[in-house]
Amino acid sequence: MTHTARIAVIGAGAWGTALALQAARAGAEVSLWARNPAAMSAGRVMPRLPGYALPSGIAVSDVMPRQADLILLACPMQHLRVTARNVPPCAPMIACCKGIEQATGLMPLQVLGELFPHSVLGVLSGPNFAHEIATGQPAAAVLASADRTQARRLADLLTTPAFRLYASDDPTGVQLGGAAKNVIAIAAGAAIGAKLGENARAALITRSIAELSRLSHALGGRPETLSGLAGIGDLLLTCTGAASRNYRLGLAIGQGTPAQQAADALEGVAEGRATAPALLQLARQHGVSTPVIATVTSLLAGTIDMDDASQLLLSRPVGHEFA
Ligand SMILES: NC(=O)c1ccc[n+]([C@@H]2O[C@H](COP(=O)([O-])OP(=O)(O)OC[C@H]3O[C@@H](n4cnc5c(N)ncnc54)[C@H](O)[C@@H]3O)[C@@H](O)[C@H]2O)c1
Ligand SMILES: O=P(O)(O)OC[C@H](O)CO
Asked: Binding residues for NAD(+), per the UniProt record (predicted)?
């Protein structure tokens, strides 16, 4: 008889809930840790899927699991450290959040590495709206770990025919893609909100990829990772999909709503807001020029408006495309 994998999902927001449903679909015994299980209601957790119901087989609790074969950390990036601190390191841990810790400039696996230096760690990222994963619509993502064999083994625990998890041994590139696409989605939304046009959005996305390639190289990521699911894949989804919270935050800012007010009106977290300044600082530390990320950071801080933002980007010198 084969052993049924026990998967513990930490964080019962939209993504944690969708991953719990996916893990159950993959045949695992699933537990879902919620800060406040009593506050979980369909409309609050999964605003895009108000009628969803967790199968009765998924145990929801505010007590951290003591045993598991795999732990998925699906809380927002800025709460990863404080949440993970309470997780018993009883199994490999996969960071499912996308962002950079603002206080330290660290990526998810660097935060987990500080807390759990002896655990097997991985990161899951890709073009995945939670409400589509929750309903089992086809999608693909990448699971990266420093050890390629571990990455494949852990990916297999969550893979189903409709959720295709590719393995990678480039966690740096995967984490950078996941963090940066949220910042670029704010830029794309702002361009559309300010009626700069779809040409402008396509140019922004493409030039952002050049920017991310420079940063990825400086951080030790592999170039091909950015052309994969966690890079271009997630940029395509988040910069064009109206369901993206980061895109919608940018859209509202582009239409003239102050950043704080636009963020308050969103249901759920827009990770790009806290990640933009952290990513900019990281780029500066490595001497990498990132004009789109810098412009989004200033827009979010309210130190420039949309006219300034487009002027800043349009007044840059035009040189060789891949200089
Ligand atoms: N929603 C998606 O479609 C999706 C898909 C892929 C990845 N992600 C990533 O998953 C992560 C979580 O996003 P989400 O959509 O589930 O979030 P969400 O907006 O649905 O929910 C936020 C969650 O954070 C929790 N929270 C608030 N304050 C907290 C605190 N102090 N400590 C711990 N938890 C706290 C809330 O209880 C809530 O469960 C993000 O990094 C996001 O980028 C989301
Ligand atoms: O709604 P967003 O902008 O947080 O995007 C959700 C996922 O990260 C898309 O892959």
From this structure: 11-16, 130, 245
